[in-house]
Amino acid sequence: MTARSIADLDLQGRRVFIRVDFDVLLTPAGGVSDATRIREALPTVTHAIDRGARVVLASHLGRPKGRVRHEFSLLPIAAYLAEALDRDVMLADEPAGDGAKKVVSDLRDGGVAMLENLRFSPGEESNDEALARALASYADVYVNEAFRTAHRAHASTAGMVKHVPSRGMGFHAEREVKMLGKLQGDVERPFVAILGGTKVPEKIGLLESLLGRVDALCLGGTMANTFLRAKGADMGRSLFESSKLAIARALLAKAEASDVEVVLPRDVVVAEDRNAETGTVVPAAHVPDDSTALDLGPESASEIAAVLSRARTVFWHGPMGAFEGPAFAAGTLAVAKAVALVMGGTTVVAGSAAAAALQRAGVAGSVTHVSTGGAACLEFVEGKRLPGLAALES
Fold first, then answer.
1. What DSSP letter does each residue of 3-36 carry, written as one string?
2. Side by side, which strands form the sheet with 166-169?
3. Phi and psi (nearest 5°) for 310?
4. Does this model's pTM top 0.85?
């Protein structure tokens, strides 16, 4: 893509509309519980301030469904930002309208304003043209620093952009695109993908795309259960997607025809349910009728580690089981450590669970990139054209 970086844009004295992703967790008392996404955007915001821009920040929070709801106000986030930036952050009382226009018009060079929750307007998610034009009227420069929303054609991510002549990406979004781009085209081989988690239907397109590009595909969690069941395994009470068994069989046939190694669990840790304090290791193809598979067994974890020891490019998304509980975390933690041992290549980890596993294993600093892009990350890796990025191209 040909989108420019904010570093290449003229910002002095200009109204710089930065679409950020401040959809963060709030505490019951109304404070910011997890400021990770805010911190990711700070270098971009600070860069604009330091260059004398008149900064207009815009974000959504939660799902207010087009209605003004006090619990989804950006007021706590504006307060957090004011402290982090050590300057006033003026919060408009609406995402668009006379109040927002007044707040933006009052900005001076180096000043910061924030529009109220974009999703208070029903036109945000429907990409309403009137809202898009209203938002664009607050901007001389548009910067997308919300990669997580780039797969959505909303008014603030796509609709308004065509009405702003100068546009580009923030530093965090730029890094996401650069690092995820390393998984496409002419990658260093062997290329190994690891997919786990529970949302099998959402990852079928990604699986099909990866099978045409990777040398090995390692599966865990409900994803692995589905493929094991497709091969005739007895899965007991384990979660699997019964509606996707035929697709799983077709993908296994495609992998064999493409000479792609598919690594399925040989053994799994089972228990009555995820609340159990301990589990039992059994063959993956023979889960007892009263049990559910909740983690990789040690043999399976060792096999994935052996595959990763030969890898030069790695993409990992999703835990290998019920990672939240200590009794069923060993497989996911073993994979985290094995990914961190890949030397000299490119290792991209995506998803909150996999990122948390890196932290718990003490190896978060040993991978090339941890993506916080959510669904946008998966669609990008799949090869889809993201509306929020396409809008930036010039």
1. PEEGGGS--TTSEEEEEE-----B-TTSSBS--H
2. 4-5, 166-169, 141-145, 15-20, 54-58, 112-114, 89-91
3. -100, -5
4. yes
Assigned CATH topology for domain 4-172: Rossmann fold (3.40.50)
Which residue ranges make up each domain of the chain?
A: 4-172, 182-382
Written as tens digits, the pLDDT of the chain (394 aa) is 578 999 999 999 999 999 999 999 999 888 999 999 999 999 999 999 999 999 999 999 999 999 999 999 999 999 999 999 999 999 999 999 999 999 999 999 999 999 999 999 999 999 999 999 999 999 999 999 999 999 999 999 999 999 999 999 999 999 999 999 999 989 999 999 999 988 888 889 999 999 989 999 999 999 999 999 999 999 999 999 999 999 999 999 999 999 999 999 999 999 999 999 999 999 999 999 999 999 999 999 999 999 999 999 999 999 999 998 899 999 999 999 999 999 888 999 998 899 999 999 999 999 999 998 989 999 999 999 999 999 999 6
The architecture in CATH of the region 182-382 reads 3-Layer(aba) Sandwich (3.40)
Task: Return d(Cα 393, Cα 72) in angstroms, integer.
Answer: 32
**Across 131-181, where does the E strand assignment appear?**
141-145, 166-169
